[in-house]
Amino acid sequence: MFDLGTSFLASVERDPGALAVVDGDVRLTYAQWLEKIAAVADGLGALGLKHGDHLVTVLQNRWEAATLHWACQFAGIVMTPVNWRATPDELDFVLENSEAKALAFEPVAQASVAASAAAQRLPRIGVGVAADAAFEALAAGRATPSPRAVADDWSLMLYTSGTTAKPKGVPRRQRAERMGAVAHVAQNLYGRGEVTLGVMPLYHTMGVRSLLAMSLIGGTFVCLPRFDVARALELIEAERITNLYLVPTLYHDLVHHARFAETDTASVRKLGFAGAPMTDGLLKTLTEAFHPELFVNHYGSSEIYTFTINQKAAEKPGSAGKSGLNQLIRVAKLGAASPTERAAPGEEGEIIALAASDEAFEGYWRRPDSDAKSLRDGWYFTGDTGYFDADGDLYVTGRVDDMIITGGENVSPVEIESCLSMHPGVAEVAVVGLPEPRWGKIVVAFIQRRGDVTPEELDAHCRTSGLANFKRPRRYEFVAAIPKSPVGKLLRRQLVAGEYEPEHSGESAA
């Protein structure tokens, strides 16, 4: 199989004059970008980085970050990106855990880098900021493009979100990265010359996949450093974006922005989402807003890019579909010790994926404890709950840890959230279980409301929608905003811990 550097060279041969990357005034064709990538790869070597070393980057989605990503693939250096919001302590952990040999950063991360003890011991590459070396100087050099890696070399190490413990490194080989990109192209039916909005962070698997996928088809990666709804709408119209691949939260913000109605979004023909379930209400809104030719629910993870695909997401709301091109999926019984303990159709259990997938990782970075928990008998135990329906389609119902056991019954928050999302007075919703002496836990719905909807109206909506009585929320809390991670994932644990802002007086009419 191709290594990623050779893969990029092949892309340049196919489409040398095609527009490859856009970032403000920067517009580079594939041939022009290759010159920059080759120069940066050579410059990293001059700084002392060798094959197999880790380069940690603390960058937003800018062309320099994408260039460093590709330069690492050519040089055989392990790209190790982290959230640009990382605190000094978080940065210290990643730098030490990955045994990083250098760090690249920009002004937004300057304070954290300055306060990181580990960062002071490393060569630092500045992107628009003074440092030991300047990215601009590296990119201004000249070098012959020469891939120095093979398909079995490490490409990338992402870190999991670490909401309950220290984040885990997820190292992935170049062949797995390329296969994930090939599958992304095929499963989203991307054609030659697609244009995508590069807003999902390049420290997240969705962002990386969009970057690599565009290279395979002579497509354009339009950088949006951080998500800004107004700017995203401007770029969709100005750059004639053809596909969007976002988490549901970002879609929600797009279609509910005041400028959406006046923005020409006709070029967008394909929608894809991942990272979290999408409520029935948002599916309906997006279908009416974009009239997409293809609406894909992609279910996967950093560890194994694709689990399942539903290419008709709006026609079967909530369904994650069937196994992807490079995967086999099972649902094991909850608490199963072995993948042979399979749940029956319709029975909720833990979703597991075949670890032999061409898109899969091979284990966490120096975490044998996590390997033992997640990798068993050749299968990856995802920690997600779900079930197969009568058609063999998978439904993802939440996390094993998020399951609400109330009065001895298992309740999935996702089903309740989808039900409540259909009420016109609900802008966003999250459901959790909170301790209660008699029932163990009760179902509580946290609502960011639109208008003056009351708990009584919401309860009546749940009753008439067909939601089973034991699943109905016993309490409603109105909040200023639903807590989410930087990439838009719902943070239920913050709600359980009481870490949220109640709705301000008068805010319900917003």
UniProtKB/TrEMBL annotation:
Task: Report the transmembrane regions from the record.
Answer: none
The organism's superkingdom is given as Bacteria
List GO molecular-function terms, semicolon-separated: medium-chain fatty acid-CoA ligase activity
Q: Which family does it belong to?
A: Belongs to the ATP-dependent AMP-binding enzyme family.
Tell me which InterPro entries the record gives. AMP-bd_C (IPR025110), AMP-bd_C_sf (IPR045851), AMP-dep_synth/lig_dom (IPR000873), ANL_N_sf (IPR042099)
Which residue numbers delimit the AMP-binding enzyme C-terminal domain? Answer: 415-489
- For whether the record's keyword set contains Ligase, the answer is yes
State the UniProt keywords alphabetically.
Answer: Ligase
- Keyword Ligase in the entry? The reply is yes
Please name the taxonomic classification of the source. Answer: Bacteria, Pseudomonadati, Pseudomonadota, Alphaproteobacteria, Hyphomicrobiales
Q: What is the name of the protein in this document?
A: Long-chain fatty acid--CoA ligase
Instruction: Describe the location of the AMP-dependent synthetase/ligase domain by residue ranges.
Output: 10-365
Which organism does this sequence originate in?
Xanthobacter tagetidis
An example GO biological process term is:
fatty acid metabolic process
